[in-house]
Amino acid sequence: MSSSWHQLDDQRENWLLFSMGAEREEESAIGWWELVVGNATQLIRSHASKVSVDAQNESELLTSLFEKLERYRDQEPLLITPSRTTLKRLRARLVEVTTQQLLSLRGFRHLCLDEQLERQFGHGLSDRGLTADSDGPLPPETDYGDLTLSASTTQLWDVWTSIYALLPLRGIRGERL
């Protein structure tokens, strides 16, 4: 039996689907984030945070995100974002927002879902009626098994799980951050 990181294993937490947005479209500050943790066989857990509900400001919001991410660091999990812009915006906000500690994405691998769809299938998220960049309020919640996720994150997870087995292995490894 292979011990390869990508084999089916319902205990492994190797996929992290991340989405975020601002409360209002014209804002650059991150107002909410959602992180879904899973693997090839199941969705294991989800985390979400929102300014004015779970955090007082953007700095606290980012700190709470990195507290959740820390659990998975160094296992080289795949951080899946809807677009490259999501990752760029997160990095830009980390530079802008003063925090007490250095927050890093090292120890993760990254995969852009929209890019993989374009490269491997010739169409992107917009062709599926989804937006690659989410702004505005956190979308309404939907039940997804035992978890409650935003409707857009549920759709992104469904897209990912429908295509990952069709991607070349180098495609699902992502790039080191």
Task: Characterize the structure shown.
It is built from five helices and eight strands. The protein has helices at 58-70, 84-96, 113-121, 151-163, 169-173; strands at residues 15-21, 32-38, 43-50, 78-81, 109-112, 141-144, 147-150, 175-176. The chain is globular and about 40 Å long. The two termini are 29 Å apart. Mean pLDDT is 82; it is low at 5-9. A hairpin with a 2-residue loop joins strand 6 (141-144) and strand 7 (147-150). The strands form two sheets. Strands 3-2-1-4-5-8 form a six-stranded mixed β-sheet, with helices on both faces. Strands 6-7 form a two-stranded antiparallel ribbon. It is an alpha/beta fold and 177 residues long. Helices cover 30% and strands 23% of the residues.
